[in-house]
Amino acid sequence: MSRFRVIPKAETKLTREAMYALIRSPVITEKSTAASEHNQVTFRVPLTATKREVKAAVEGLFSVKVDAVNTIRVAGKAKRFRGRAGQRSDYKKAIVTLAEGAKIDVTTGI
Description:
It is a single chain. By secondary structure, the protein is of the alpha+beta class. It has a single domain, classed as Alpha-Beta Plaits (2-Layer Sandwich), CATH 3.30.70.330. The chain has three helices and six strands. The strands form two sheets. A four-stranded antiparallel sheet has the order 1-2-6-3. It has a two-stranded antiparallel ribbon with strand order 4-5. The protein is globular and about 55 Å long.
């Protein structure tokens, strides 16, 4: 018998407006394009977004089945512009693994 209590996963309910606010934009880089061969799509999301919220938003907006969501918090770089020091904003990326046979074309609009 397990010592740990299993807590069932709660369904995340989001409005359509909240879904659009959660999925800010696709990340189109060489690395994310290579990941698309493995049924993965990368999106930029708010720093406060959770994996369950991202999963619910992607499934709701694109009508696909999501297997997994990995999130990465990217720290902003210190940059200089015309001799003045500045700081880029922090952001979060979500790498969404789609179920077999599901596909999202990020080059077209929703």
